[in-house]
Amino acid sequence: MTERTIFHKIRDKELPADIVYEDDLVLVFKDIRPQAALHLLLIPKKEGDVVASIADITKSTEHVPGMLIDKARNFAKEKGIDGYRLTFHVGKGGGQEVFYLHLHFLSNQSLKD
Ligand code: 5GP
User: Fold this and answer.
1) Cα–ligand 1 centroid distance for 32 (angstroms)
2) Which protein residue has the closest C-alpha to ligand 1 atom 20?
3) What predicted TM-score, i.e. pTM, was given to this entire model?
4) How far apart are CA 111 and CA 24, in angstroms?
């Protein structure tokens, strides 16, 4: 990837975001324009895991979508959320705006502490 996107800046803490979970591999934050009671975005953190889109996945990054889905599942379980939608927008035609791979997590159940 050549161009730094807004999600690079959120990952690198150069821009603020409402972060709800973080570990060495993944950052999870609230979408600024939520489409559901709870709308989160999951992004990979390691530079080697970052690609623009699902369409750009190669052998070295094929583990990344599964990792994001795993993190989403574990996060939901931990928070007691038992119904949610997971979505990847792929390319401009698929509604993708930010070209830094991310998984949308949407639920009608809001987040309890
Ligand atoms: P895409 O359409 O690329 O799959 O999704 C990008 C998402 O990022 C959109 O749902 C949009 O609302 C969200 N978004 C765009 N800019 C920002 C931002 O600066 N902060 C946060 N938290 N979300 C953003």
Assistant:
1) 6
2) 32
3) 0.97
4) 22
Spans of the chain below 50 pLDDT: none
The three-class DSSP label of residue 43 is strand
Atom of ligand 1 nearest to the CA of 88: 4
Q: Which of 73, 69, 71, 70 is nearest to 88 (CA)?
A: 69
Instruction: Give the chain's end-to-end CA distance (angstroms, integer).
Output: 36
Tokens at 99, concatenated: 């070209």
Contact 6, 16 (CB under 8 A): no
Ligand 1 pocket, CB under 6 A: 6, 17, 29-33, 41, 89, 95-98
- pLDDT value at position 2? 64
Residue 1 one-letter amino acid: M
All domains of the chain, ordered by start, with CATH? Answer: 6-107 (3.30.428.10)
